[in-house]
Amino acid sequence: MQKNVKTGRQPENKDAFSTAIVLLNRQRAIPVRHDWRSLLRAVVAGCVKASGFPYPAEVHVSLVGVRTIRRMNREYRNRDAVTDVLSFPALAFRTGKPVLEPGDIDPQTGLCFLGDVAVCLPRMREQAAEYGHGETRELAFLAAHGTLHLLGYDHETSEDESVMFDLQESMLVDMGFPRREAMPC
Predict the structure, then answer these.
(1) Cys staple from 87: which of 51, 79, 133, 146, with CB 3.0 to 4.6 Å?
(2) At what angle do helices 135-150 and 34-51 cross, to 10 degrees?
(3) pTM: predicted TM-score of the whole model, two decimal places
């Protein structure tokens, strides 16, 4: 497996769905459990597969703390507040299909970089307690939500929200993480 040209890092996992996931722990508040790493790989790859994305893909997932997510939210969304997950898509989508530009598929790896997802682990822990389910389920939810944003899904209209949330929930149920109660975005 070749190293990622942008980061110089070798992707941690390139699974059967041809999705390479680069995981970066950029926080110290919460130790990252080994099963969370496996979970993140499976959820991200599952999202890419379920969406029908037609190319081998690469996604970067950063686990961050409160200060970092707040700074990112302020810088990129003009919202000075802590949030649970942020997505930074690298591709544009038109009518549900990726719009590729020259260079979007790395000639060395054959992978199409979808973008970055940042998950705030302290906020994930708070929300898991708030919603009354485990941290693993909440982490799976946030990873799925962030990855679907990379794949062109959003919840700006009620119709788009229904499509995105139905796919997200179906995937989580299939992976053994059913919703126990209504959860806000």
Answers:
(1) 146
(2) 40
(3) 0.86
Using DSSP's 3-state secondary structure scheme, residue 160 falls into helix
CATH number, domain at 68? 3.40.390.30
Spatial CA neighbour of 120 closest among 167, 86, 159, 76: 86
Pair 126, 112: CB distance under 8 Å: no
153 backbone φψ class: left, alpha, beta (φ>0; ψ -120 to 50):
beta
CA distance 100 to 10: 24
> Domain span at residue 107?
13-154
pLDDT value at position 67? 98
Residue 2 neighbours by CB under 8 Å, 6+ apart: 10, 108, 109
Distance CA 45, CA 111 (A): 13
Read off the pLDDT band of 179 (50, 70, 90).
confident
Q: Is residue 73 part of a domain?
A: yes
% of the chain residues with pLDDT over 90: 76
